[in-house]
Amino acid sequence: MFGGAACLGLLLAGAAAKADPGTGPKITGSIEQHWTTNALDSDRAVTDWYTLLRGSIDQQWGDADANARIHADFEASRYNRASIEDDRSLALSAEAFRRLEAGLELRGTLSYRVLSTGDDLEIGPLIIGTRELKQILSAQGQFGIDLGNATSLTIEATESIERVGDTHFQDDLISPTKLHADRILSQMAARLTRTVGEYAFGGSTSALLASVERVGFPPLQLSFFQYTAQAEAAFKGKDGSSFGLALGAQYLRGADGIYERVLPAWQANFVKPLPKGFELRGTCFGRYETSDTDDPLASWLRRAELELGLKLRENLAVGTGIFAQLKDNLLLENVERSKGVYAEATWGATRSLNIVFRVDYAQKVKTILDEHESTVDAFVGVRTNI
Questions:
Q1: Of 11, 300, 328, 374, which one has the greatest count of Cβ atoms within 10 A?
Q2: How far apart are the C-alpha atoms of 97 and 299, rounded to whole Å?
Q3: pLDDT tens digits along 18-42
Q4: What's the CA gap between 107 and 97, in Å, rounded?
Q5: Quick check: helix, strand or coil at residue 196?
Q6: Percent of the chain whose pLDDT exceeds 90
Q7: Confidence bin at 8 (pLDDT 50/70/90)
Q8: How far apart are CA 41 and CA 64, in angstroms?
């Protein structure tokens, strides 16, 4: 972690020497008013209104050979009735880039994120609000090499520390208790890419070691080692169409030999402009999911999305999309099936101000838990760029 921060400091010093003071910050903001049929995100249908506020500021100095960037963003939600679900988050990051002689490039990033998450705990007919504070500190160093003949090699190392505080319960009905473990994530990755005209080919590999605090018995979360290797191909056409494909395998080993298996890993995505202002987008992937999972170790996640957009006028666009997802908990043996559809319209009131209206409908089934969720979420929002 300290090595990554030191590398970032050296890069920032080099970028500052070439800083362009005339470039101003980029500011974005949005406010959305939502209505949902599932404020608690559970099989108990609770309707509510909530407001979602987002904002960011981005400042960059330098040129293509040496530059530095700082970024900050926040997000906050406030429910009218189910205030126990209110969330807040703040993220800060600093990044520096330097291109050296002989085709070498260096990039360093240091980031910090803090989240205050509201949730609910169901005990029979009783619902108790909970709140938890989580902090994430990450450092990343990236080294790029131009090997000639339109071939490049990128090597990166990332260290991330996650600290989770005690969970506090509504009205102190239960003493504060630690329900989620601290984690230290160490990752090494490499990618080799060869470009031939509009096509790019290559391969990537990564190794991730997660050291997880043991909380509870049996433990709520487990340490693990994950290794990924993939072959990759991509195409980008002059008409705006693009296609990407990655095929490989992932190896996952849980602590104490509780789980060990190799599964296929894949990702495919495409963008295709169509006549009369239409555009079709799609993506699908399959992989181990070790962060967004209810399982002590991981889930086996497969997801597919398809979107169709139409630009009716220069300042008016509409779109619709569908998704389907299957998530298998590896140790709990629960299977979570989700599917949904959305429709959206965006009107550009001015060059920097957009009005958005969107409706989402989603269903989720958890087999072992025998939970069936159905959610409608509709909102109107204002988004601006300065």
A1: 11
A2: 35
A3: 545 547 899 999 999 999 999 998 8
A4: 4
A5: strand
A6: 84
A7: low
A8: 45
Rounded-to-integer distance, Cα 89 and Cα 131, Å: 13
Q: What are the distances in angstroms from CA 296 to CA 86, 223, 254, 275, 332?
A: 25, 9, 10, 48, 8
Closest among 340, 253, 327, 261 to 289, alpha carbons compared: 327
pLDDT tens digits for range 325-383? 999 999 998 999 999 999 999 999 999 999 999 999 999 999 887 889 999 999 999 99
The candidate with the shortest Cα–Cα distance to 87, out of 113, 119, 111, is: 119
Max CA separation in the chain (angstroms)? 67
pTM value is: 0.89
Q: Are 111 and 1 in contact (CB under 8 A)?
A: no
280: alpha, beta or left? (left if phi > 0; alpha if psi -120 to 50): beta
Q: How many residues does the chain have?
A: 386
Backbone dihedral region of 2: left (phi > 0), alpha (psi from -120 to 50 degrees) or beta?
A: alpha
Closest CA to 16 of 48, 79, 63: 63
316 with 355: CB under 8 angstroms? Answer: no
Phi and psi at residue 170, to the nearest 5° = -55, 130
Tokens 């599964």: give the residue.
263
* 201's tokens: 């080919």
What are the CA-CA distances from residue 317 to residues 232, 242, 308, 309, 312 (Å)? 33, 21, 11, 7, 6
Q: Which residue has the tokens 């009218």?
A: 80
How many C-beta neighbours within 10 Å does residue 304 have? 16
Written as one letter, the residue type at 78 is R
